[in-house]
Amino acid sequence: MTTVTLPAQPSFLRKKLFPGLTVSAMLLLVIMTFSIGLHIYNIESIGDANAYYTAAVKSMLQSWSNFFFVAAEPGGSVSVDKPALGLWIEAVFAYFLGVSGFSVSLPNMIAGVLGIPLLYAMVKKYMGELAGLVAAFVMAITPVFVATNRNNTMDGMLVFTLLLAASAFIQATETGKRRWLLLGAFLIGLGFNIKMMQAFLPLPAFYALYFLGSKEGWLRKVINLGLASILLIVVSLSWAVAVDLTPADQRPYVGSSGNNTVMGLIFGHNGISRLESTGGPGGNGLQNGTPPAAPQAGTAPNQGTQLRQGAPQEALAACAASSQGATCSFTLQNGNTIDGTCITPPNQDVLACAPQGMVPQNGQALNDGPDGQGPNGQRGGTPFSQETGNPGVFRFFTAPLSKQMSWLLPFAMISILLAFFGSHIKLPMESGIHKALLLWGGWLLTCVVFFSMVSGIFHAYYAIMLAPALGAMVGIGFAQLWSWDSGRKWAGILLIAASAVTIAFQVFAIYQYGEQSWWMLGVGVLFVAGSILMVGMKRAAFIALLASMLVIPMYWTVMTSVANSDINLPSAYKGSSLQDGADRARGQGNGGPISNVNEEMLAYLEANTTDVKYLAAVPSSQQGSPLVLATGRPVLYMGGFSGQDEVVTAEDLKAMVANGELRYVLYGGDRGSKQEITAWLASSCSVMLDYSQVSANNPAPNQTMDGGNPGDQTMTLYYCK
Q: CA–CA distance from 532 to each of 541, 542, 544, 650 (Å)?
């Protein structure tokens, strides 16, 4: 095994407080305890978490078939648009604890807390205890890390799995034993079965560490990497092949695939659609430019067209002094109040208030225009730009994405440069700092470049992928300067400069989110104190400067836990200027989708469908997930997740009615490619009642259960026989 020379470390970190317990270990336990508090405080605010996944877990517990194929609803009509492993783990927790937002999110919270000592150990191996502790603490106070782990999106489990894989690649590099390399490939394959290709993002860094850092012969390393790659592909595609080999009539339709295969899902909705904006099933939720959301009731029928071709003056005025992604509201001439989000409409250069039903929600994409063209003629525009902004080199440094994990990104980037010059370059790599640079710097840069450039489906919570590498590089850079300071007088000056750049960015960012508080002057006090102490008390100066950079991200992470959570799409604290409006938009109580179910209609459906399989058929999971959570009954998602899948046709519905499987259909609006269903409903079914969805701030007896997205939409209940 290779011996790694560590940089100079603070001696007190190795001092034993008790037998077997050093100061470093005690501080790590404190960090983990703090992280546990951040993860569980105010956890009731997540409600049912992402209802789409929670309903799927409830469905999976009803049969082994539903479990294996990750059925999105108990009837097994369509599967979730994600692979199985993460949802299997959530289902196991729900089996023992009951189905709830907390139980299905708990695996991610556990993964987040356990990832802290794992990161510490890996960074410590190459850079010592100081770097490991700073890395662990930085990851623990990264807002998106906490926000995403407090949700049932599976990214927290993915990050933990990738950390385990990184540990295996480190062992393979240091020991030269193939079994560690194969274990790393196996773990990445498991990660693929949690979030598909997202698991491959750090793969170049892992391979580079082994290939350039291991002392084995070059040919042997090439062969070993080839074998590892074969294993990686086999494990990654194992579930996909099993599903695709199952006859289509013996399993659910593969949601969001476009062609009813997991391979189509891998390379379509979860592949190309992540890289660039596309239309149609398996793309970003658009087909022929038509979104799955129903038209707005209580407003002019062409309101959506007005927003696309020229927003109403009231919508423009509502966002005149706001930023992209801010919540907003305006009142139309007919007296209706519209709540929404500030976006930049296609072919315009000003912000406008888009009603909730027209803003991308839980995987839907924005309807940019009649032909699906976005700004600058881009097909479909940039999905979820209200979360992530537009592609470009400044994406991580400007609103709305900068609040997620970028608070210490300037220092991490500077640390990459410091690490590059930290030792003489020699192949195979011998210095610990260069091995750390290959692994963590490679991971960080790959993710920064990839997410900065993609124009497809990119949610803000994907930024959790950068959290481990961000923490590692901050710890590595700080420890390197600490070590250099013993023989290089300019090391302290460099830390002052790097801290100044980082704090300047943080101040710029907090002003973007309207978060100016008097206590933030403490950041300046710590910075000035650290700069002055550099003259005679350098170690104290280093600690003060580090603390000055950690105050604001730590505050933002605490506020992420304190403030009510975003349920469907987890996100960091929005800032004081945006938070109140966001809370109002989520409504009262826990904000869970079940609170938006029309209890009267639900009771009617349950009483009149005891002899049929399905409680009702609905356009998509947006309307169906709350019904599944409320009843546990099969609910036919006719269009899958977003409404664009061809799960069933009008002929299929007709046959199901004739066979006594289906009696009621809840539908609304012009569904674009679903015109044949609209025609069949009009000719073969009778209207029972129209249910109008109203503002969450003004609930009415006829409130619908349409996906939990308040906003004046109309759904019609049909009786078919």
A: 8, 11, 10, 76
Query: For the whole model, what pTM was predicted?
Result: 0.85
Those residues whose C-beta lies under 8 Å from the C-beta of residue 72, and which sit 6 or more positions away, are 52, 55, 56, 59, 78, 79, 80, 252, 255, 621, 637, 640, 641
pLDDT 10s digits, 410-449: 999 999 999 998 888 888 988 999 999 999 999 999 999 9
Q: Tell me: pLDDT of 150 over 90.
A: yes
Highest-scoring range by mean pLDDT, 4-13, 278-287, 480-489, 508-517: 508-517
Alpha carbon distance 504, 411 (integer Å): 11
Residues with Cβ < 8 Å from 652, sequence gap 6 or more?
none
Question: Could you give the count of Cα atoms lying within 13 Å of 413 in the half-sphere of its Cβ?
Answer: 15
Q: Which amino acid is at 309?
A: Q
Query: Which residues, listed in sequence order, are joined to residue 687 by a DSSP beta bridge?
Result: 718
How many other β-carbons are positioned within 10 Å of the β-carbon of residue 482? 25
Name which of 555, 495, 468, 466 is nearest 132 in CA terms.
468
> Which of 564, 593, 589 lies closest to 55, judged by CA?
593
- Specify whether the CB–CB gap between 269 and 645 falls below 8 A: no
**Distance, CA of 309 to CA of 109 (rounded, Å):** 44
DSSP category for residue 498: H
Encoded amino acid at 643, one letter: G
Q: What is the pLDDT of residue 359?
A: 44
Q: Give the torsion sign (CA, 509, 511, 517, 522).
A: positive
Name, in order, each residue with C-beta under 8 angstroms of 245's C-beta and a sequence gap of 6 or more. none
What's the CA gap between 209 and 227, in Å, rounded? 16
What is the pLDDT confidence band of residue 548, given thresholds at 50, 70 and 90? Answer: very high
CA–centroid distance for 237 within its chain: 23
DSSP secondary structure string for all residues of 407-475: GGHHHHHHHHHHHHTSS---SS---HHHHHIIIIIHHHHHHHHHHHH--SS--GGGGGGGHHHHHHHHH
Helices (runs of H) and strands (runs of E) counted in the chain: 28, 10
The Cα-based distances of 176 to 212, 220, 253 in angstroms read 12, 10, 45
User: What pairing do the DSSP bridges indicate for beta strands 327-331 and 337-343?
Assistant: antiparallel
**Rounded distance, CA 570 to CA 49, Å?**
9
For the record, the structure tokens of 96 come out as 């023992």
Q: pLDDT digits over 648-695, tens only?
A: 999 999 999 999 999 999 998 544 447 899 999 999 999 987 765 432
Residue 557 has a CB neighbour count (10 Å cut-off) of 25
Confidence (pLDDT) at 605: 95
